[in-house]
DNA sequence: GGCGGCGGTGATACACTGTAACAAACCCGC
DNA sequence: GCGGGTTTGTTACAGTGTATCACCGCCGCC
């Protein structure tokens, strides 16, 4: 199970993310182009899930426009390499700092107050889900598990304003 | 745990669904209007998840057009009453024949081959998820769990064509 | 050097999904 | 009949994602 440790830590993570991404791409013989780098950085810098159009706007500057379609292509690439996750319930994207094992289930903890998204995993949930699917005669290919609620920090902030 | 028993059973379910929906609305003092009835019927008749625009098109006839916005409103109502589920990973809707207990988690089994969606539930998964969230200091409000894969019928069909 | 394939990007247009705002119709109790 | 809440129609718009084609840069090959 993994937790973000606050915005400072997230920010520090951004550089790590970029270094790791470059290593992953080099290792797999893929190109970590400037656009892909910028998109990943934009996703990693903000502590919350970013929409593709938000990223496009953030990367655009007067005179240099980045079209959403380019962002989508970069995101597709980054998702294939496991560097970014898509949050289906938000139509948004987050960076992934954990090299997940293939087939490992991920639980997204989405805070409705601060918009932050943490990742967790649980062998208990995974095992139970596997048994449930087997009983149902269903062969899984991939699954999404997203929980919306209040993160610890926001809950404390609400109790003692 | 629940399984569809094929298209014939789904079709038979449609009438039951409508009767149950009418009973639920009467009991809660809500209106089960013709539009809401038609939308629920459209969702229930097809064995697969339907998009809002698909439903609008299906309900439209030459001379009588049903706008998507009307379908969305009916779907919102039906979802509030627990008669319809939204499948976030598909932007689509399915009927629900099981009166879920409040707070009960639902697992959607989405067949990538036939497009059918079954519902399952598992106290094991639910308990494991609850403990995982508690460890993470996260207070859940609601969660979605959707699994894409191959249903039993489609897997058999693929093995022996 | 020239050439052709290949992956990445730019640019435009388009399809699909969902919501806001306002007016008209409907229902129901007074 | 009247007033007020709910439902529906209609239009317009915002947000999300994809198709298509052209262009560029790179690298291997002739
Ligand atoms: Zn991850
Ligand atoms: Zn929070
Ligand atoms: Zn259900
Ligand atoms: Zn199937």
TrEMBL record, chains A, B:
Keywords linked to the UniProt accession: DNA-binding, Repressor, Transcription, Transcription regulation, Zinc
Cell cycle recorded as keyword: no
Pfam family, one: FUR
Family matches, as InterPro entries: FUR, Fur_C, WH-like_DNA-bd_sf, WH_DNA-bd_sf
UniProt family annotation: Belongs to the Fur family.
Name under which the protein is recorded: Transcriptional repressor
């Amino acid at each position: 199970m993994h937790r973000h440790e606050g915005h400072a830590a997230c920010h520090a993570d951004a550089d790590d993310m970029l270094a790791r991404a470059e290593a992953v791409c080099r290792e797999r013989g893929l190109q970590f182009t400037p656009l892909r780098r910028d998109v990943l950085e934009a996703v990693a810098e903000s502590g919350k899930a970013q929409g593709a159009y938000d990223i496009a706007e953030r990367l655009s500057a007067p005179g240099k426009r980045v079209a959403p379609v380019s962002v989508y292509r970069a995101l597709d690439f980054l998702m294939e390499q496991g560097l970014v996750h898509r949050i289906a319930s938000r139509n948004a994207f987050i960076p992934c700092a954990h090299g997940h094992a293939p087939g490992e289930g991920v639980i997204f903890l989405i805070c409705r107050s601060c918009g932050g998204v943490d990742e967790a995993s649980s062998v208990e949930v995974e095992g139970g889900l596997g048994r449930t699917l087997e009983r149902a005669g269903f062969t899984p290919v991939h699954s999404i598990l997203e929980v919306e609620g209040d993160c610890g920090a926001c809950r404390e902030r609400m109790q003692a304003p």
